[in-house]
Amino acid sequence: MNNLEEVKDLIGTQINDAIVEVFDMTGTQDHLGILVASDVFKGKMLIEQHQLIMDILKESLREKIHAVKIKTMTLEKYNQSRGVSNE
Questions:
Q1: Global pTM?
Q2: Which pLDDT score, from 0 to 100, does residue 63 have?
Q3: Closest C-alpha among 78, 75, 79, 61 to residue 6
Q4: Which of these, 24, 2, 19, lies nearest to 75 by C-alpha position?
Q5: Are 54 and 34 in contact (CB under 8 A)?
Q6: SS3 sequence, 8-34?
Q7: Structural domain count of the chain
Q8: How many Å apart are CA 65 and CA 47, to the nearest integer?
Q9: Any domain includes 86
Q10: Which domain holds residue 25?
Q11: Which helix (H) or strand (E) is 48 found in, with range?
Q12: Is residue 9, in this structure, part of any structural domain at all?
């Protein structure tokens, strides 16, 4: 399993309703862009949202990932950004 798949699986198993997208930013699979959409982020400050993701990743990927760029949002915001109606 490569780093992108591992990150996606780790987050998906910890946050049940998560939509997870992982991107290799440099072609080396150790600088990753991570987008996570979940209702677990409702009412949380951005730093709390990012800390939740880092807590999931830090032990398992300490030796494998050099840098991450995290974007978090609620499912409603994710659907709006994709042009999907919640009605």
A1: 0.90
A2: 85
A3: 61
A4: 19
A5: no
A6: HHHHHHHCCCCEEEEEECCCCCCEEEE
A7: 1
A8: 20
A9: no
A10: 3-81
A11: helix 46-57
A12: yes
Q: Which residue has the higher pLDDT, 42 or 82?
A: 42
In sequence order, the β-bridge partners of residue 73 are: 37
- 67 falls within a domain: yes
**Cα–Cα distance measured from residue 56 to residue 14, given in angstroms and rounded to the nearest whole number:** 7
**Per-residue pLDDT tens digits for 16-72:** 999 999 999 999 999 999 999 999 999 999 999 999 999 999 887 788 888 999 999
- Report the residue count for the chain: 87
Give 49-58's long-range contacts (Cβ < 8 A, gap of 24+): 52/15, 53/11, 56/10, 56/11, 56/14, 56/15, 57/7, 57/10, 57/11
Dihedral sign computed on CA atoms, order 1, 32, 83, 86? positive
